[in-house]
Fold these 4 entries.
Entry 1:
Amino acid sequence: MKKIYKKVSKFNVAVEDLLQWIENYRWMVETIEEARQPVAKVNNNS
């Protein structure tokens, strides 16, 4: 039973790491999109 529990806890850690990575990735993409928008507006005006 303990072996199974160890595997499950390792799996849970992996899932939490994955979710954290997805959160960070989405935040990074949103930040990049926001940073690009003003540049695009300046390019369109000139």
Note: The mean pLDDT is 83.
Entry 2:
Amino acid sequence: MAQVVKPSALPDLRPILSILGGLAIALGCNRSPDSLPEWTPADHDNKSKPAPGQVDTKAARPGMPDLQKEGITDLTLATWKQNCATCHGMIGRGDGPQAATFKPPDFASAAWQRTAMEQEMERAILKGRGRMPAFGHLPPETVKSLVRLVRRMGPSEGNAEQGQADTPPAHGTASP
């Protein structure tokens, strides 16, 4: 024999809750536009008077090199990102998205930095080398700046590969 389910002794609250929800929405959206403050840049990060805890973007950060002092400009970094990073990777480890079919050098390698010469790097940038296309349209200063950037990608003090020297070779020469 089937059991008969008795209707709940409590009244159905759905209609009442629907009316209350609609009323809350209507009252909440009833503010006039004049009562809303106009947004200004001062409502957010303020560079002229930073709030406590706000990051000061002008101050040098520990461990961040001043590349401008080394002649590596924003133009150099943009050129690297547009033309070089697809194969060499953003930080020069030879791990860019196009590097799977061939193996570009790892510029962070102390061994590579010791044997690479600036003139060869400039020639490779301007005329191409192996699967690397030529970038002969780049101005000479941009090419030299790219070479400085590649040198900068080498191991830093205290981070040399297996205790090897981390000083890159002098301009135009290779270390023994």
Note: The chain has five helices and no strands.
Entry 3:
Amino acid sequence: MIQSKLDNVIELCEKIECLKLDYYDITADEQIGDNDVEFENMEDDLEYLKVSFQKILFQFNTVDNVQMHKSRIPNEVFVKLPEVSLPEFNGNIDNWSNFKEQFDSLITNNSTLNETQKLFYLRLLLKGDAELVETQKDTFNSLMKVLIDRYQNKRLIVSNHILNILNIENIHFESSKELRNLVDTINKSVRGLKLLELEGNELVQQIIINVVIQKVDKETREQYEMSLTTNELPNWDKFPAKTFASPRKYNGTHQQTRMKIRNYGKNRSFMRKSTSKNICVLCKGGHAINNCLLCC
């Protein structure tokens, strides 16, 4: 029953995404207004429902001991992994905060799991370099402490998130895909900073916006400047939705630009052919050969 509801939520998320793209295709940019915010609110609500159903599944979907652990813990009961995937951690320090938050929500704070079960799932979800971490005591708390000491380096995490923002590659031509990737990268770093309880004040928001404006292509930058109708400072939370949300606008403009370039090339070719007919092959003068004095 819960799994069915979870599947419905996932399917609804996909339908909302398709609906949003169709809406951008048929709606003029100036008419989009605050509907972008409504789409974001719906997506946030659906994400909350999805995580809630995942937690319920994880808490109540139990099975007998895993066969390979019967000899070690004969009287224990292991909770079966839900069909939805749990967060994994591969040793990338940028992803630690997000992994730790989700793992604590699903595993650490799960009262139906004992310490042995928590250790089992923690080791199961560690990949790459993180999988090689060892402790003197084979317990959940000791392993988690070593991971926190190694990866929960607040100074380094903050530095990496800031560098991720500053080192975003410049966009040279209009592309909705690259613009969305840029915004997603910024939002990922901003969320990572918020998980460290570093809230973005107005100064930080203005710095981020100005960094992004220097990264986008010239046409997009000019469109953004023209969209500022007041002297009020822009807000980053609204900035991506209002400026980068419409793939139709950027794809259409980029296509027109390419058509202009192709047409310009054709015109240049025609001009060269037309001009070449008026150049004398004898004296290279600006006249036809039959009008050349050398032929007289």
Note: The longest helix spans residues 247-276.
Entry 4:
Amino acid sequence: MVVGLIVLAASVANPTYDPAIDGVLRPRAGASVAFGVQRLQDEFGLVLSLVTPHVFDERIALRIEGGVGWYPDFRALPDDADDQEFAAWSLYGHVRALLQASTRFALASGRIYAAVGPSFLVLDEQVSSTRVAPGVFGVVGAELFAGDDYRAYPLSFFLEIGGAAHDASADVQNRVGRPQTTGTTIDRPIGTGLALAGGLRLYVW
């Protein structure tokens, strides 16, 4: 699906791209640092991303990302655990490595892209019996550059939509003391579902 979207994007974007302005208004393609906010299904988070310079005609790059997320503590508890003190959100960490393929488009100085790769969650023992959860993360996105009539500035805004799946669930019923699993089938998955993100990217060269 991701590859198909990139092929479709390339077929639409490249024929309309004006080579006369390609040299001065083309999107930046060097190394960059990005900061954004994300939503994974019902969870919110912050993400910091390092992107390598684009290679192979400025189409391929590697993204290394890390950040934190907040899981909503709406876990169902046994009747005898009603007195447990549950915070509104539980903090966890995430890290991922994504391969990104992109193409430029002519409507503005920018690019559309798709990225996919492995992802890992680092979870507290009072949230899940799984401490490090492997998974997969994939998105399609658009990046628009600030600029004027003569050049694209080294700053862009991006929006992404996709999905994520991780092998972890909120299966711990108590927030204090020795962790005890719920032993039920109503445990809710963590870091799994619809992925939305947006933020700013700064190109350092």
Note: Residues 5-16 have pLDDT under 50 and may be disordered.
